[in-house]
Write a structure and sequence with these properties.
Elements: H1 6-9, H2 15-26, E1 74-79, H3 84-96, E2 101-106, H4 116-122, E3 133-137, H5 142-153, E4 163-167, H6 169-174, E5 194-200, H7 202-206, H8 211-229, E6 235-241, H9 245-265, E7 274-278, H10 291-305, E8 309-311, H11 328-344, H12 358-380, H13 384-389, H14 392-407
Parallel strand pairs: 1-2, 1-8, 2-3, 3-4, 4-5, 5-6, 6-7, 7-8
Helix pairs in contact: 8-9, 8-12, 9-10, 9-12, 10-11
Length: 431
């Protein structure tokens, strides 16, 4: 084996050799039948070669994150159950079981903070100085966001904690609310441990948007915040991860290229962390057990793309009757998926493993360029707020959703290889 000479003893196959074999396997079908396209019309295959790789490549590793303690990324425990006692027990179980950060959803139907005591009860038993905490808001008014934000800022237990408040007035506008300038906090409040904003671009994906629309929304929001606050503002980005793991890798890498480019343009530091969350849009209610496959591949894409924080949803989250009442089993499986990928599969031991890959580099370049063009269109239209207020951006997202639904692609376990006599999933009872 030591004398094996790969370069001299094996012929280098040509594309023609590959096409000949493929055509034989297709038994008369055209080779173009293997070509698949993304929602943005970008060809995903069937073959990528050295000729497809962009001339200029960028090494796109994760940014340094606090309190990682040797981990490759933060495993975020999703905390959103309206029963604070249950939520507290669940987050403690998650932390003891391997999670390293908390992803807390505040709002109606989630954790509805009314008093500082509610937050104290939620975080009881947590060594907050060792656990980054990230907040996000769901189905809540601007006035309620301000009220709960004050409760968070006034809690002594969070004084020495790494906190992202998750404020995103742009997404409030996206949700058809009037942009409330009162949501903007003085920049003097931010510290090395407290960041104010999180651009929640994942809402675009779950509303039906394409990858380029999600990235262009992210870019336009970032430009808006830099103009409003200046280059010293600290923020993060939230992106959806779906079942197409390799496209997910390219999306996160394209996002990092765009973030770095915009930060450089404003004279800001290009160290914006990316928080990836498994997409709600891909989740199915028919045979929800197949969601385990989707969540796992979404997590693989988030890891391969280099997300610093990753939240995987419980597999029952698509159920319309009880979307937030997952059982402890659902939370445990979601957490253990990440632990298995981190500790058993040893993913992310190489930073930016997709660097140089023909397919991933080609898709990163194509997505970045497509999203940048859409970002420029948003800017030319008056900026993200104007495009949201006028409804133009929402209409483009709805058009993308309609196009996808018209394609009616097969769904594993639902319209493709459906199982019979599926065992129903369990939910935690409302309290």
């Amino acid at each position: 084996m030591s004398d094996l000479k790969l370069n001299s003893e094996f012929e280098t196959p040509s594309r023609q050799d590959w096409e000949t074999l493929v055509k034989a396997g297709l038994k008369g079908l055209d080779i173009d039948t293997l070509v698949q396209e993304t929602d943005d019309g970008l060809a995903k295959g069937p073959l990528s070669t050295r000729a497809d790789r962009p001339d200029a490549l960028s090494f796109l590793p994760p940014t340094p994150s606090p309190l990682l303690a040797g981990r490759a990324w933060h495993i975020c425990a999703p905390i959103r159950d309206a029963d604070i006692a249950f939520a507290n027990k669940q987050l403690l179980d998650d932390l003891k079981g391997g999670a390293s950060a908390l992803d807390i959803t505040l709002g109606e139907g989630a954790i509805n903070l009314r008093h500082s005591a509610d937050l104290k009860r939620l975080l009881e038993g947590v060594h907050t100085e060792l656990v980054p905490i990230r907040f996000t808001f769901s189905d809540v008014s601007a006035s309620k966001i301000k009220e709960m934000t004050r409760l968070v800022l006034n809690l002594d237990e969070l004084e020495n904690c790494v906190v992202n408040l998750g404020l995103d007035p742009v997404s409030s506008s996206y949700a058809s609310e009037t942009l409330d300038e009162g949501l903007f906090l003085p920049i003097s409040l931010q510290t090395d441990q407290l960041s104010l904003l999180c651009i929640n671009a994942a809402i675009v994906h779950d509303a039906g948007g394409s990858e380029a629309q999600e990235l262009s929304y992210m870019a336009a929001s970032l430009a808006y915040y830099y103009r409003h606050y200046g280059p010293d503002i600290r923020l993060s980005v939230r992106l959806a991860a779906n079942q197409d793991a390799h496209l997910g890798i390219a999306k996160i890498r394209a996002a990092r290229r765009i973030l770095n480019r915009i930060a450089e343009s404003f004279g800001a530091q290009s160290n914006i962390p990316i928080h990836s969350i498994s997409a709600l849009r891909m989740m199915q209610t028919v045979d929800p057990w197949t969601n385990l496959l989707r969540i796992m591949t979404a997590g693989f894409g988030a890891i391969g793309g280099g997300a610093e924080y990753i939240t995987l949803r419980p597999f029952t989250d698509a159920d319309t009757q009880s979307p937030r009442n997952a059982t402890p089993f659902g939370y445990r499986i979601a957490r253990n998926m990440q632990i298995m990928m981190m500790e058993e599969s040893h993913l992310a031991q190489v930073q930016d493993a997709a660097y140089g890959s023909y397919f991933h580099e080609r898709m990163t370049e194509a997505l970045a360029q497509t999203a940048w063009t859409e970002f420029q269109a948003l800017e030319s239209g008056g900026g993200i707020i104007e495009m949201l207020t006028s409804g133009i951006f929402q209409k483009s997202v709805q058009a993308a959703k309609a196009n996808r639904e018209a394609e009616n692609k097969p769904i594993l376990g639902v319209t493709l290889h459906p199982a019979e006599n599926v065992r129903p999933a369990k939910f935690r009872e409302n309290t």
